[in-house]
Every structure is written in C-alpha cells, then in structure tokens.
Backbone:
C-alpha cells in the first residue's frame, strides 16, 4: 500500500513538473508534495533531475512557443484562444467582440503569428472551432518559422496554432470533477446623454445648420423634471434593458485509467452562459441571448501487440444559442440601445400599448419580448482513428503510422419570430393612437445555415535511431484533406513531405524538410508546388571549455531558412463563370432573347493563379542557466511574402467587368521576439515568473497601385494596411480664419468645423491632401505571468499589453446623430465646439446636415487615437486542502479556487475599449469561483 501511494505521488509530481517546465508556469504543488519530499530526500533529488530534463529545449531547431493545461484552465472564457493573450511570444491577439454565441475563431479574437492569420490544428487536423473544454487540452503550441510549418505544404505560410488534447496513459483509475460559477459584466458600454441634454444639443445642431429649434424650453424642463413620462420620456435603455450581470456555469468530469494493454481518457463538459438582455416573463419561452454547450470526448489507446498500437478519438459537441426574433437579433438590440435617443418614445403608452412612431418603430421592449425568438444549434462530430506499427524486426527504430479523421459540423436555426406594432398618440383628449407596423403571427420554420465536412487521411513512415554519439530521425508522409462547405465542390489539399533531423553528441544539430503540396482549385497541371526548409544549431554549453561550468546548461544559437506556400485562391477562378437571370443579364443562350436564358458574366477568370509564397529566415538563441531555473529565448525573423493575390489598382473599368485577384503583391515582415522565465523554490515556497516581448515591423514592398501625383500618397513602402486621411489642424475658430485658409473643395466650412492641412500648397483641400495617418512604428506586444505556491495556496497573475498601435475611431457610437440624423448623442460629444468653448473643445460643432458630417467625419488625424494598453488579463487564486483531510473523505485532492478574466485595462481612451472599439458587443469581465475534486 505504501508503494501504491508513493507511485501516485511520483506520477502527480512528474505531471506537475512537465506542465511547469517550458514556459515557467505555475507550480501547483500542495502539501502532498511537501510532505512527500520531507519523507524521502533521495526522491527530492530525483524531482530536481526530472525538472532539469523537462526544461531542456527540444533538439529540433524550430521556432515554437508552448503553453500547458494549467495556464488554460485559469481563464474562465468559452474559447481557449481567450486564454492565450500575452502568454506566447510572437502571437498577437486582439479581442474583437464580446459576442457569446459565435464559435468562429476570427469573430471572437484576432489572432496572428508574426503578422499572419493562422491555421488552427487540433490533434494535427485542421478544425474550425475553438469552443472546446480546456481541461482536455494538454498543450497549445504556435509554430512560427518555415522549418516548423513547411511540411503543411500550401498551408505553411501563415503559421499554425497546434492544439494537442490529452492522450490516455497507463495509470490507476483517476476521476477529476470541476464545478464553477461565474458572474460576468460588460465593460466600456456607450455613455449616452439624458433626454434633456439630447434636446438641448439637437436644437444646437439645428441652429448650426440654420434651422429652427425643435424643442421648447418647456419641453426641456419636462424632460429634466420627469413630470410627463409619456409625452416627454427619458429612457435610459442601457439600464432598462441590459442586466448588469450575467451568469456563467461550467461543469467538467474527466476520467482516465489504463494498463499496459488498454488506456482511456473520457471527458464530459457542460457550460451555460446567460445573456445580458433584460426580458420579461410574458412568454412561455426565453427571448434572452442564452448560450449552452455540451461536450463529450473519448480518447482510447490499445496495444494489440507489443508492436501495434491503435487509438480512437471521438469528440462531440452541441451548442445552442437563443436570441430574440430575426428582426431583433442581439446585435440589432445592442445597436438600438446605443443609437436610440432617450426621448424617442415612451416604452408604454397610457393604454399600455407599445410606444413608437414612424421614425422610431422598433420599441425596445417589443424587440426583446414581442418579436418571438430564434434558436440556433451547432452540432460537431469529430473522429480520429490511428494505428502505429513498429517495424523493429525489419529495422530497429523503424515505424509506420496511418490515420483517418472525419469532422462534420451542421449549423441550423429554428425561427419562431413574429412582428409587432407600435402606437403613436394622435389625440390626447380622445386617447386615439396611430398604429405603426403589424402584430403578426408567429413563424415556425426550420433551416440549415451551413454544413461543413472535413475528411483527412495521413500515412507516415518514420525512423528514430541512436548510433553512439549520433541521433537520426527521419520522417516521410503523405496526407490529404477534403473540405466540403454546403453545396460547393470539395476543396482538396494533397501533400507529400519528408524531414530528416541529425544531432551529434547533443551538441551539433541539423534539420531539413521538404514538401510537395497541391490544391485542386488551381488550374489542372499547375496545382502542385515544392516547399523546403533547413536549419542548423550548436549547443555551445556542451563544448569542453564550458562543460565544467555547472551553472550553464544550454547556450544554443540556431538558424533556419525556408520557402513556404499559401493557397489563397478563390473558387476555381481559373474558369470563367456566368450567373443566370436578372435584368442585368447580358448574354443569351437560345433561339431568341425573349425565350432564351439570360446570363451575367461574373469576375474575369485568372487561369494563371498560383499559390502565394514566402521566404523565411529565423535566427534564434536558447539559453538555460542555473540548473535550468532561468530560461531565455531570443529570435529575429525576416519573412518576405510574395506573389500575393491582389486586385491590380491600375485596372480599368472601361470593359465593365470585375477584375480577378492576381499574384502581384509583395510584403515583408521582420521582428524580434524575446521570452524569459525563472522558476525556483525555497523551502515550501515555490515561485515563477515568465515574460515575453515581441516587436513586429511590416512593409509593403510592392503592390499594383494607382499612380499617385505625390509620393506621400503611395502605399508602397508603408506598413501593410496603412490608414490614409487628412492631417487635422484643429478647428476653424472664426470666419476670418476661414477666409484666409485654403478653400475646401465642394464645401463651405463654418467656425467649429475641422481644419485640414494643405499638403501640396495649391490652396485647395481635396483628395490630393490625403496622406498616411497613424503611427508607422513597429508594433510591440508583450505579456507577463507570475505566481507562487506555499502550503496549499497558489496564485497566478497574468498581464498583457500592446504599444505603438493606433485606431481610427468611427461609426454610430463615435459620431453624433447617426441613422439619418435620428441617432443618439454621447457624453464624449458634450465637449463640442461652441463659440464659448472654442479653445477647449475636443469635438467638432454639432450638425444634422450630411454635408457637414461629410467634412468633419472624413478620415483624419483627429479621429486617430492611441490604442496602447496594459490589461490585467487573468488572476487565479486557489487552495488545496491538506492530503490528510482529502484522504478522510476518500479523495485524492480537493482544491477551491477563484479567478477573474479581463479585469482592468490601463489605456488613454475615455469611451472606447482599446481592443474591441466600434463593436456593438462590449467585452465581458468575469469573476469566477469553483471546486475541483479528484478521486
């Protein structure tokens, strides 16, 4: 029995060490480990040895960065991508939106590796979902250079996020159950003004436009005093129709067991997110934006013989998302809350009917409660079958592996929407109302939105052998993935690849890889391309002159270079296509035009289209010191992307056709990436700190742009995606200043309008005065994670930030009176230009006129703001009860924990979030608590 418990503790200890080694992650040790170490000093030394081995860098020369399970489970977020900001060097992230019911990774978070949109692989297979249970993830690795990605053929240029789920291992029966409950709130909601202030500013805008005021002093007083809530309402829609908090619950059970013949890992996961919409109980169904998710995972491994292993992985997920009816989606409601003036209508009239008008015919209470509901369901099924046969009898170290994967995703919607009417009081004395809209019957329809099917097969042959001081690893493989989206023809990637790795005395390293990849949407005969990469490395610490320096463990400079590819091509664009019908049909097939079928020619074909290419150079240095307690990695990369698919800017519209994208563009991305980690222990106190900082610079080397009269208007040579606009020189302060200023083409400015710089000194402000605006400095992004554990307590804190990043503020939440002059006013517009506030104004004069808005709302430096920030991303605090207490309850361990996500941001924006600006869905802050029990 003593040996049994000893074995359990060794396995637990080894597991903890593996998790904490590479990136300086949290030591989640508890009293069990401390007591165990006190009992046996020899095993304590073995622990140090295991730690050293686990922290050694891979002998491969690839540029990668990895995080492990214990870093992912501390973040209470639906997507594992939301646990990655600031944790991996080279990975830039930006939270796009706080939307709850969307599993498209790109809609949740913008994630780029060295400036490129990245491919997500789950267990080696491309899979387009990110909402999976973090407890089942063993690790997430980003592959950043050509050597690490080249074997993916025509999907190797954009770099890769590789998610590896937990594999079944030989172990005694283990069950882990986690229950957690969270409270979410929304951050940086739009700040609108009261009905009285709206009326004052509306009158002011009309006055600026030379129009009579709409609201009288009595109206404004009634709005201010609230004496006439029907005729003069003051509705704070945010408070009326959004809950301050929404709840998040997750329950997870995972079981693992196995012997030397069969092993399994099974996980069940349920998550429920309440919506923030404040609905009433008038319906027997929910119209809130709730989301729930069910997941089952089963990974099984069986040794059919001493040389043959078979594994089966099954993943199933059902995700349901409910929201109000199709005319009042969650997005539409958030937009209405921020765009509708507080005085637009009374929520309810005196006769209890819904208030509204022809101008404001979407009463928010009605949108939430009287428009029915829709329920979207996404179903995923993923299966992997893999067999590995050792061929030791033929050649020691030789093996062959075959795998087949199938993934099916179906999105469907049940539509139970209905319409509703609003009513405007016409005659107060007689209480007569004008009906706007109709109270319609409820729909009951079902539709498939999309269906995605992925099939993937791979056959690989490998050889691993050690000859005295020589280590050789060789791999050749062939794989193919077929992806079918709805009724489209399959997109098929076919790839043949091989790699060889060699090391001598674990001191000198060499690696090379080659792939011959094809894509079926290129022209037949031109579908395959050759891609390659190679690398060299040298561990100087293994040389004789350093072998006796005990505090030096690794000093490994390395370099890699390669060419990768990207099949960024449209739907069989090498063929010319025609679309049937319509009044625009210009080609007829048949006897006469009256009886023939008419077709419209679509975009011109491009039979010469080929894959995009990239030449990538990576120079790195890995250092481990002080018995591997200190680890540093520094890398420089220079990636040139060419033959990029772009539409020529010099194309002419004279033929009336849309031009295709062609392989003409060329961009360069360069940068530095640095990471450092330290972990250590003093007595019962274990601690760690891990940080990374990345610098990314990019430039347009060539693009086929329209010839510009002035050099400052050219995109070539500037950062990719550079914003162009006018340079704002404050506001016109007087008519005298306007009279002596350059003329604005097509507009007569008045005091309070933005004043733009005449860059070409021709006396006219027009398109020739637009130039690059916003920073052109290299983007800097960074992160820091630190923590400690002592006597059962453990704490980790993670921060991340971005510098040298600007945003262009625009849209309905930035400008005044949008939606045709019927929109809202926001608090940041209170400091607008007026004659009495001319010197302190931070916003142009108010106007309802489209012409004035067309002047002041042009892209200019006035709307450019820094979005640099430092965010307290994640805090996790836990306590593991002493093992003696757990054992009395027949348990292995008990841990209680609390964590938070998106806790606070330090930035210079006063009414926007630095990450999801201009999104209708605010980001969510989460406070979470839970309990983990292991049997």
Residues:
């Amino acid at each position: 029995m003593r040996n049994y418990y000893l074995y359990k503790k060794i396995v637990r200890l080894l597991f903890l060490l593996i998790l904490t080694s590479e990136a300086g992650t949290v030591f989640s040790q508890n009293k069990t480990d401390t007591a165990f170490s006190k009992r046996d000093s020899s095993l304590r030394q073995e622990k140090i040895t295991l730690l050293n081995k686990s922290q050694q860098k891979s002998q491969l020369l690839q540029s990668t960065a990895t995080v492990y399970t214990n870093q992912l489970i501390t973040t209470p977020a639906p997507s594992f991508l939301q646990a990655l900001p600031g944790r991996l060097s080279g990975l830039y992230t930006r939270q796009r939106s706080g939307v709850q019911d969307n599993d498209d990774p790109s809609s949740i978070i913008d994630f780029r590796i060295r400036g490129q949109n990245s491919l997500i692989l789950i267990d080696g297979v491309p899979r387009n979902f990110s909402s999976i249970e973090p407890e089942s993830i063993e690790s997430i690795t980003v592959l950043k250079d050509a050597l690490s990605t080249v074997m993916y053929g025509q999907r190797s240029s954009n770099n890769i996020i590789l998610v590896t789920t937990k594999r079944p291992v030989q172990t005694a029966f283990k069950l882990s159950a986690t229950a957690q409950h969270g409270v979410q709130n929304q951050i940086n909601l739009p700040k609108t003004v009261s009905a009285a202030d709206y009326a004052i500013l509306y009158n002011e805008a009309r006055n600026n436009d030379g129009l009579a005021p709409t609201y009288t002093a009595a109206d404004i007083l009634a709005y201010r005093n609230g004496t006439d809530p029907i005729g003069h309402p003051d509705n704070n829609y945010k408070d009326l129709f959004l809950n301050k908090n929404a709840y998040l619950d997750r329950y997870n059970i995972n079981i693992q067991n196995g012997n030397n013949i069969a092993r399994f890992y099974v996980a069940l996961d349920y998550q429920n997110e309440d919506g923030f919409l404040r609905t009433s109980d008038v319906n027997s169904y929910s119209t809130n934006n709730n989301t729930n998710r069910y997941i089952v995972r089963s990974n099984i491994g069986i040794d059919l013989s001493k040389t043959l292993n078979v594994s089966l992985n099954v993943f199933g997920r059902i995700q349901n998302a409910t929201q109000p009816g199709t005319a009042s989606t969650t997005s539409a409601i958030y937009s209405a809350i921020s765009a509708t003036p507080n005085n637009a209508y009374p929520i309810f009239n005196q006769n209890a009917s819904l208030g509204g008008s022809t101008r404001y015919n979407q009463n928010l209470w009605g949108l939430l409660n009287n428009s029915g509901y829709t329920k979207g369901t996404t179903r995923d099924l993923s299966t992997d079958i893999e067999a590995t046969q050792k061929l030791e009898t033929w050649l020691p170290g030789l093996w062959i592996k075959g795998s087949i994967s199938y993934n099916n995703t179906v999105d469907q919607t049940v539509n139970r929407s209905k319409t509703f009417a609003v009513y405007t009081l016409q005659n107060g004395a007689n209480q007569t109302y004008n009906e706007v809209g109709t109270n319609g019957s409820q729909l009951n329809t079902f539709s498939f939105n999309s269906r995605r099917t992925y099939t993937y097969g791979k056959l690989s042959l490998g050889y691993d052998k050690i000859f005295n001081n020589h280590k050789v690893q060789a791999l050749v493989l062939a794989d193919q993935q077929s992806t079918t989206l709805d009724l489209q023809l399959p997109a098929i990637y076919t790839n043949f690849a091989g790699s060889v790795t060699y090391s001598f005395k674990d001191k000198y390293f060499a690696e090379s890889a080659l792939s011959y990849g094809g894509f079926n949407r290129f022209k037949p005969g031109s579908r395959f391309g050759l891609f390659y990469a190679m690398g060299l490395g040298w561990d100087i610490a293994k040389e004789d002159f350093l072998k006796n320096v005990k505090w030096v463990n690794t000093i490994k400079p390395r370099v890699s270079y390669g060419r990768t590819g990207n099949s960024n091509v449209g739907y069989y664009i090498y063929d010319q296509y025609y679309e049937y019908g319509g009044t625009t049909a210009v080609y007829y097939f048949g006897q006469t035009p009256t009886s023939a079928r008419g077709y419209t020619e679509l975009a011109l074909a491009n039979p010469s289209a080929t894959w995009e290419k990239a030449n990538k150079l990576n120079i790195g240095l890995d250092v481990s010191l002080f018995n591997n307690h200190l680890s540093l990695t520094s890398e420089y990369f220079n990636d040139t992307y060419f033959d990029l698919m772009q539409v020529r800017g010099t194309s002419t519209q004279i033929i009336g056709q849309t031009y295709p994208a062609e392989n003409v563009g060329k961009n360069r991305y360069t940068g530095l990436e640095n990471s450092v980690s330290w972990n250590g222990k003093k007595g019962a106190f274990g601690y760690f700190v891990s940080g990374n900082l990345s610098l990314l610079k990019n430039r347009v080397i060539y693009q086929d742009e329209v010839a510009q009269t002035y050099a400052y208007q050219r995109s070539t040579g500037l950062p990719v995606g550079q914003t162009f606009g006018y340079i704002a020189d404050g506001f016109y302060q007087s008519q005298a200043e306007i009279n002596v200023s350059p003329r604005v083409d097509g507009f007569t400015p008045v005091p309070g309008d933005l004043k733009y710089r005449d860059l070409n000194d021709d006396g006219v402000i027009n398109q020739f005065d637009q130039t690059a605006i916003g920073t052109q400095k290299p983007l800097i992004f960074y992160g820091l994670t630190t923590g400690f554990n002592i006597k059962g307590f453990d704490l980790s804190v993670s921060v991340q930030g971005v510098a040298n990043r600007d945003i262009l503020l625009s849209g309905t939440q930035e400008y005044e009176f949008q939606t045709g002059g019927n929109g809202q006013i926001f608090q940041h517009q209170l400091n607008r230009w007026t004659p009495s506030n001319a010197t302190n104004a931070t916003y142009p004069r108010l106007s309802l006129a489209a012409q004035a808005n067309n002047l002041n709302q042009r892209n200019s430096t006035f709307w450019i703001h820094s979005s640099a920030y430092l965010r307290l991303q994640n805090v996790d605090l836990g306590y593991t009860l002493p093992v003696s207490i757990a054992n009395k309850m027949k348990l292995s361990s008990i841990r209680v924990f609390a964590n938070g996500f998106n806790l606070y941001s330090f930035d210079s924006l006063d009414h926007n979030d630095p990450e999801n600006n201009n999104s209708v869905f605010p980001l969510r802050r989460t406070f979470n608590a839970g309990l983990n029990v292991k049997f």
Summary: Confidence is low (pLDDT under 50) at residues 1-59.
